[in-house]
TrEMBL record:
The chain crosses the membrane at residues 21-47, 77-95, 160-176, 182-202, 260-285. It is found in: Cell membrane. Residues 371-579 form the ABC transporter domain. GO terms for cellular component: plasma membrane. GO terms for molecular function: ABC-type transporter activity; ATP binding; ATP hydrolysis activity; ATPase-coupled lipid transmembrane transporter activity. It is a multi-pass membrane protein. Signal peptide: none annotated. This is ATP-binding cassette domain-containing protein. PANTHER family: ATP-BINDING CASSETTE SUB-FAMILY B, GLUTATHIONE_L-CYSTEINE TRANSPORT SYSTEM ATP-BINDING_PERMEASE PROTEIN CYDD. Residues 27-330 form the ABC transmembrane type-1 domain. It comes from the Bacteria. Keywords: ATP-binding, Membrane, Nucleotide-binding, Transmembrane, Transmembrane helix.
Amino acid sequence: MSEFKREHIYLKHIQAATGRLLLVVQLCAFMASLSLLVQLVAIAYFLSALLHPILGDADSLHEQPLVSVFNSNSGNLVFAALAIAGAALVVRVVFQHLADHFAARAGQRACQQARAELTEHWRASLVQQAGKQAPEQAGVLLEPVESLFGYIARYLPQRSQAVMVPAVILIIVFSLDWVAGLFLLVSAPLIPVFMALVGMGAERLNQQHMETLQRLSALFIDRLRNLSLLYTSGRESAATAHIAKAADEYRRINMRTLRVAFLSSAVLEFFAAVAIAALAIYIGFSLLGYIDWGPSQHLSLFSGLLILMLAPEFFQPLRSFAQYYHDRAAALGAASQLLAAQPTGSAPSDIAGPVLSDNTARAAGPEPWLLNYPGGTYRYHPNEPAIDIPAFRLCRGDLMLVTGPSGVGKSTLLRLLTHGDVATDVHGSTIFAPLPGKIALQRQHPWLFAGTVADNLKLFYATANANASDADIDAVLDDVGLTGFAEVEVVEQGRNISGGEAKRIALARCLLAPISDFMLVLDEPLAGLDAATADRVLKRIHSHHKQGQTIVIAAHEHGKGQLREMATHCLAMGITEMQS
Ligand SMILES: Nc1ncnc2c1ncn2[C@@H]1O[C@H](COP(=O)(O)OP(=O)(O)OP(=O)(O)O)[C@@H](O)[C@H]1O
């Protein structure tokens, strides 16, 4: 799927979250525009009645179809016209206020939806987030999400107004004077054409703008974090210069984006002004009698005034649309950022599905096995040596032990089991499908966030461990040899705890995942554990297995003996035969 299409699908999906609010906004905005038109007709009537005796024109005010609505220009009607103009003004203000109110609500709802989805994706895939820069991720929740507001609250409502309001005005003007109508009809397409031309460049600039801002915030937080190190090594001025350079780059991109925005609106204003001026000349000369062909002979003061007042309103929705078109460009840039920030496997096509949809969708397959791999090879890069993966079959409730010397590819196999990829099997290149269902994966380099150890255990795969009781948490921490660690504060990325402790917290997190919902995939769970703790972890794994949980464990020689006894089968990597 092309990037462009993915972004559009994403924006449509976010738009759907606003429900019927957008429809209400469009309706209110249209009613406000209709009230304005009524107001202009009433004002034109009032002015023409006022100016008629002064100008002494013989034109009848009854000649045009719209004038007939008013029937006569008696004093009562003039007052009625004033009253209608006043009432229309009030109605317009009310509808405009409602439209703005609901538009803001729709925009907020869209932003909330985008933020909620993103945090849910992140919560659901803590493991995949490992190694990503926290400031960069936090930045995605601010600027790009805010860019969706303008798209929903301004661009989308204005898009429908830009079609409906000019169409109504065109009908009115054509019924008054078809030559004037033709003026508007010919000049109207210039605006969308320019919009499209400018929009293409603006979209790319907006993307660059977002990326630069993300880089700047990540750089700034990184330097702040390492302030003391920079100070002790005497590198403060170099760091300051680096930030200044990055800020200047951001300023440059920002100014370029603004330049395009200002230039495009200036061009559009110019075209609208020229069209209105041409129309004013035509009406002026017609009323003075210098033009004596076509409908100009029948142009009255009322219709001339009304057309003149309607002309700016004809261009206004198109101008606003052009102005808000930048919101669309910004939203497309933001959509690509938001999609990139989502973990793999959560492309827009499965946004509406469950968080772990890729794997979950296949969980109820008719095969007796979860995965049946015929054996083959996998390469990280075409030039790198192939990793041999022996044939294996994994069924529900199995405990598969993956063994082999360091570097043989055990972690790689676990990665393939959880994420899938393209591997070469005995039938040629094929997709190595991930295990169907939810997986609690313990990696060698776990990711921990700022909070207590208990917080770190609870926040795992969306709602998986959210309801874990204190007793459950204490028990699992006991089992991994971290008794009393529940309330210990962890700083961002677990920098204040040892590597071994971090691994054990990650192991506890997996062991806490609901047995009936999750498969366990553990990478070296016993590494670094003392004999007594390793024994408790083994007992716990054994109990999980007895309760029917499907478990895959990669293990070195260490602790393999007991694990081998427990395992339903063993996959020895580096040896291309399946053992049982
Ligand atoms: N992201 C990566 N990109 C490129 N090569 C990689 C990547 N990860 C691992 N490798 C390479 O793939 C091979 C297998 O690595 P892997 O980590 O799967 O081995 P392992 O059996 O788990 O080792 P250990 O027991 O030491 O953890 C190694 O040669 C390693 O250098």
